[in-house]
Structures are given as C-alpha cells and as structure tokens.
Automatic annotation (TrEMBL):
Descriptive protein name: Helix-turn-helix domain-containing protein
SMART domains, per database record: HTH_ARSR
Molecular functions per Gene Ontology: DNA binding; DNA-binding transcription factor activity
Record's signal peptide: none
One family name in Pfam for this protein: HTH_20
Record key words, sorted: DNA-binding
InterPro entries given in the database record: ArsR-like_HTH, HTH_ArsR_DNA-bd_dom, WH-like_DNA-bd_sf, WH_DNA-bd_sf
Domain HTH arsR-type, first and last residues per copy: 8-87
Organism annotation: Paenibacillus apii
Renumbered residue ranges of the record's region Disordered: 179-201
Amino acid sequence: MAQSKADLILHPIRMRIIQALVNGRRRTTQQLVKELEDIPQATMYRHLNKLLKAGVLEVAEENKVRGAVEKVYYLSQGGEDATPADTTERASGEHMAFFLKFASSLIGDFSAYVQQEKYDMRQDGVSIRQVQLYLTDEEYAQLLEDMRRPMQKYAGNESGEGRRRRMISTIVIPGALSGLTGGADEGEEQNDVGRANEDGN
C-alpha cells in the first residue's frame, strides 16, 4: 500500500528536516547534517530522498563540489501539509497511528533533554501546559492567527549567536460532539513543570 503523505511526514527525522527548511530556508545535505548533528549523513540522504520523491522537497540548484553534485533543497509550497484524504478520510486506527508517531517524537525530544548530565527546567524554560477553551470556529481561527504572528517574528532565526533550539509543539483536540461535558475543569491545567514555570515560559 502506498505511504500516505501524513505517514511520510510524521517521522521524527523527516519532521526535523522539514522544520529546518520552513520559511523559505534552503539547505544542502552537508548544512543539514551540521545543523541536525545527531543524524548520520547516510540517514540524512535516505530521508531527503524520500521527501524529494514525495514532492515535499524540491531542488533549488545543483552545484559541483570536488567532482560531486551538491543539491540545495527547499520546502515545496504546501509540502509540509497533509492532504485532505490524510485528515478526513482515513480510519480512526490510522489516525491514532499518526498521532502516536507524533507523540513518540515529542517523547524522544524530552527524553534527550532529561538524559543530559545537568539541566534546570525552570532556567531552560521547559513548559508543559494544557488549556481548555470554549470557542466558535471564528474565534478559534483568530486565536491561531494571534499565536502564529509572534512566532513568525522569530521563525527565520538561524542557529548560533547564543540561540538554543526550542521545540514548540501544538496539539489541538476538539471535544467530541457527542460528549462535551465532564472531564477536566474549565480553565488552564498544568502539571508540576507547568506550575514551576508560571513566572515565565
């Protein structure tokens, strides 16, 4: 069975490659290997080829470097977006598989963080929070726009200059239409890490 676009994208390594190319960034394989230093070069080539064949990435130019051809990759327009079939026409089991892949990438990032010899969650700005809001479709669309606007201001930042990679992931799960009552209290819910960061994310 052909691999869906969502299944292709929701792979921890391919997600990181896509994130490295957002906002019009262009990178060679060597630049990506340097930026995502924990990914071996052979693995990088393999995932780049998968994304290229799927049309998620395109080649902006090819340069000859010491007798070899070096490709410069960029994200095709809408390349990182799942197709309507991936989001509305699949069985619930498949959607759960997609979600578990995404969740596993978050677990991997957090695991790598807490396995450091030294860390300070408050100082590092670790924040894990959940907020429950009641919104119309219009209010929700406006909220997303309000959230994206300030993040766009920093989306073009390059690594270096004292900057540290910070993964900000959003997961929005609408309440089931058949059961909107019960569950968590209205308002913001936080785990202990969220409470520890109340004074600053």
